[in-house]
ATPase
Amino acid sequence: MSVPPPADPPAAAADPAGTATRIAAGYATDQPAVLLGTVVVDGVVDPSAQVQVPLSMLTRHGLVAGATGTGKTKTLQLLAEQLSAAGVPVLMPDVKGDLTGLSAPGRPDARTQARAADTGDRDWTPTGVPVEYLSLAGQGTGVPVRATLDSFGPILLSKVLDLNETQESTLGLIFHWADSRNLPLLDVQDLRAVITHLTSDEGKADLQDLGGVSRSTAGVILRAVTNLAAQGGDTFFGEPQLDVADLLRTTPDGRGIVTLLEVAELRTNPALFSTFLMWLLAELFEALPEVGDVERPKLVFLFDEAHLLFADASKAFRQAVEQTVKLIRSKGVGVFFSSQLPTDIPGPVLSQLGARVQHALRAFTPDDQKALAATVRTYPTTRDYDLSTALTGLGIGEAVVTVLSERGAPTPVAWTRVRAPRSLMGPADPAGVTAAVAASPLQSRYGTAVDRESAYEMLAARLAPQAPPPVAGPAPTDELPPVILPPITPPPARRPSRPDPRDSGGERPPSRTRHADREDAGPASGLGDLLNPAVGSFLRSLGSAMGGSLGRSVFGTRRRRR
């Protein structure tokens, strides 16, 4: 009986040093790059075998995943530091409150020095980066930022309100009705006023014009809006609205500013902050020009706890996220999602992510083992590692990495020991954060809410009782008749208006451009003029897919005029 020849040993077992050098050669580049760490083979790290990703490839997006406590947040911190040093602005949420340390130099210790030696970071020096602290208005200590309901649009708002698809479609038609009546929806009170009107006796005809929208469905939406107001939505939605250009700033010495969005206070309403981040991405898509391939991104978006974005999301929302991620690359924006499992990200979105930094996975349950098997199948084929074993055997601060090279091809799979951040790995001094917020140039722009006339005031004035005309008197005579005065009616209740920011030297918030493109079109006609069953069905579809208005983007957000 012939004996089959022995199988070739894995390359890693045959020559660990040669394998590390060969893997690192796949990451070599002459372009500016973010250094992630060094190659590990058979438990031995090679400080000269660098794993890096070219800056120009960061607009191909990426994923940082791994179980709790495996080092995902530190990897995001490392990315933010190096991007800032390269002149690239960064936006990232601070979910746990431990990223404020980015602004402070790190603390060298034995572990940090050992990690620096392992990863070839010979000139490791404690260094902070320029940080801007923002928070959703009323939900933190950072500079308060807001968005108008009108700019948010019905699809994103439906995610916040946890509406089903039928209710989402109805909300889109309500937005459309407000558009057609020139009723600005700036804050929660405006939307409540519109829905209250549509479900009242005075608004019965308008409700029928909306293609047979039921009062019960509108009532459900009204209750959800009321709950949102009680959870802080009444302070977040409004003006002045955040200008996304303020996320693209650099310091005078050329470093990119890292914008931290404080969201630790929003753990009870995670849909609000995750959807707000998607609104920012949609606003960037609308505001930025097409630039194609760039040497370095205009902005990189590090989206921590990304699973909150897709949890219970509607089909329309998921499709909108997929399309935005696919197209925003041409605007020079890179997006990195971070979550515990790759399967937290929908497949069509995951397929758009060119860089993979996978920290350790756990395989304690059948579902964990299924997720592990699915993760292994998403990596390029490799003879250097048994990925099922590697992904469960990674140490803290280690990851299995593959990115796109400068040629756009996947790099070899690399077990990577990740570099140590140079900034403080923990929260910064709260007093220093408070002082930075007070000194921020954005404080004067966004610190004070502005309340101008909008749907609430307009509907209140429109529905207020009108004074009767004076009664005609008898024919003139030499005797002066008594003066008949009309009855005095109290003015409609109005919210106290706040001063126009121009009166204090500030910049006026951008005015709404809802109907700027149809100044000569005259007043919009009611939907009832066109109504029949076919048109009603069409409008319901329009409300779901486009937010009920041809002037809205894929998310139903307000389109900007170029």
Q: What stands out?
A: Residues 1-13, 477-550 have pLDDT under 50 and may be disordered. The CA atoms of residues 462 and 492 lie 9 Å apart. The chain has 19 helices and twelve strands.
